[in-house]
Amino acid sequence: MEFPEYWPTFLTATNLNWLPLMQADSHKKIIIDSLAFLVKNKRVKVYAFVIMNNHLHLIWQVLPGHTPDAVQRDFLKYTGQQMKFNLKENDTTFLEQFKVGAKDREYQFWERNSLSIELRTRSVFEQKFLYIHYNPVKAGLCALPEEYYYSSAKFYETGVDNFGFLTRWGG
Residue 1 has what DSSP assignment? Predict the structure, then answer.
């Protein structure tokens, strides 16, 4: 089966009920490690990202041999499972806030139907790129985008990739 080349995609994934699941650096690290794994295994290129306390934004491009739905599903499932394991060990009270009465799961960490938009034009790509990097500024977490650690903004400002998985967008 042959897979087409996919457009870069803007993804927003939100924690269940906007709970601050990723306030813990250990949970941000789960996201970072998962993105690094996907890049290393040639499933995606990551052009931009930001991890906030209750949601994340990415611009990534699924690579040939993989489908966007499968990569997104696996990413969200894996990161949710890892955060569940962490909470079971370290914060069972907070874990209870993610308990759901679903037939197929005991806990849910991500809202259903994450926003995923193909970036087919340069102008839309640039708009989402800036939106991602200015998200922590707008939230009052920093004065400049490159000051927020869990973001690709510093990479574009300084050329330093603290995470080891970013691909520079040539725009």
Answer: -
Query: Is residue 1 over pLDDT 80?
Result: no
In the numeric block, the tokens 């809202």 are attached to 111
CA distances to 48, 82, 97, 109, 150 from 26, rounded to whole Å, are 20, 10, 18, 15, 12
Q: What is the mean pLDDT of residues 16-42?
A: 97
Rg, C-alpha atoms of the chain: 16
> Which pLDDT belongs to residue 3?
46
- 125-168 pLDDT, tens digit per residue, is 999 999 999 999 999 999 999 999 999 999 999 999 999 999 99
CB of 86 within 8 A of CB of 93? no
Nearest to 74 by CA among 98, 94, 44, 104: 44
Cα(169)–Cα(33) distance, integer angstroms: 21
Full DSSP string of 63-121: PTTS-HHHHHHHHHHHHHHHHHHHHHHH-HHHHGGGEEEETTEEE--B-SS-EEEE--S
Structure tokens at 125: 């790509």
